[in-house]
Amino acid sequence: MKALVFQGPGEVAWQDAPDPDVQDATDAIVRVDAVTLCGTDLHIVKGHVPDVEPGRILGHEAVGTVVETGADVRTVRPGDRVLISCVSSCGRCRFCRERRYGQCRGGGGWVLGHLIDGTQAEYVRVPFADLSVHPLSNAVDSFDAVLLADIFPTAYEVGVLNGRVRPGDTVVVVGAGPIGLAAIRTARLYSPGRIIAVDLATSRLEAASRMGADAVVGADDGPEELVAELTDGLGADVVMEAVGAPETFEMCTRMVRPGGRVANIGVHGRPVALHLEDLWIKDVTITTGLVDTCSTPMLLSMMTAGRLPTADLVTHRFALGQMEEAYDVFGRAAETGSIKVALGGPRHTEVTAAPLRVGASA
C-alpha cells in the first residue's frame, strides 16, 4: 500500500509501505476512505514529539471500511463503514474503566500515528476495534464524520468540559485553528454570554465569526484590553488555549478572572512559564488533558440528527495520493487560508475482505 511515512524532523514521504495485518484478536483492518491532518501531525514533523520514531506512518483520524477482523471482534465486521477514533481503548485497565481512555495503560491511548502506524495510508490496523471504532450511518458523509475522530471531541472535552462553560459565561478562545473553531461551536451548546476569539490570521478570525464567536480580535491588536473592556475589568470566566505556545498560554492566564478557569488544549513543544506569583491569590483553575473520546457517541448522534454541523471547517480537499501537497497547504495556513484539510480516494462500490487466516474471524 501507499502511506505517509515520517522520515525524521522536517521530512515525510508518501511511499510504499507494508500492508497491515491482524496482529491481535481484537484488531480490525480498515480501508481508509477519508482522512484528515491534525496540528499534532505538524508538531510531529517539526520534531516536537520525540516518541514518534522515523519510519512511523502518521495520522490518527479517519473514516473507512472494515475489510478484516480478529477472532475476538464482535461489534463490527467486514463491509461496515466506521469512524476511527484518535484514541484506542483496551477497556480493561483502571483508566478505561473510568472512561479516561486517553490514559489507557493496556496498550491503548493515543497510539495511532504515535506509537504504532496510523491512518494516513490506504489501510490501517486499529487495535481494540470493539471500543476504538464507531459504526457510521449511511446518512453521515465521510468528510463530515472524520472531524469527530479528534478535533470535536478534543475541543469539547479538553476545552468546554474541562473549562466548565456555563450559561452567561464570557469565554475566550485563543487560537482559531480547527480545534479553536470546534471549541467555539461546542461552547455554544452551553449558551455562554459571549465568546471572544483571538488569532493572528484574519481568515481564521472570519471563520470564528461564522462559527459563532461574538467578537474577534487579532493577537497583536490588544486582546487583553478588549477582554477587560467587555468584562468591566474582571476578566473572562473561561479561557481556552488552543495554540500550544508559551506566549499564548501566558496571555490566557492574564485574561482569566479571579475564580475562573484556563483550559489548555494546545500541544506544547516548549517549556511554559507559570506565573504563580500573580496567580496564587486568584483562585484560578488550570486544566490540561489528552482527549478521552468518551463524548464521541454523543457528538456522532448530534451530527446524525443535524444538530452539529462540521462541514464548513473543511476548506481544502485532496485525493489520498496528494498527501504531501496537503501537508504543504495545511502547514502554511496563514498563507493558504486552510482550516481543516481532508483527503479521500475514489468512492468504492464493493469491499474485498482479505483471505481468512488462522486466528482471524469475519
UniProtKB/TrEMBL annotation:
Belongs to the zinc-containing alcohol dehydrogenase family. Keywords: Metal-binding, Oxidoreductase, Zinc. One of its GO terms (molecular function) is zinc ion binding. This is Zinc-dependent alcohol dehydrogenase family protein. Its cofactor is Zn(2+). SMART domains: PKS_ER (SM00829). PROSITE patterns: ADH_ZINC (PS00059). Residues 8-343 form the Enoyl reductase (ER) domain. Transmembrane segments: none annotated. InterPro entries: ADH-like_C, ADH-like_N, ADH_Zn_CS, ER, GroES-like_sf, NAD(P)-bd_dom_sf.
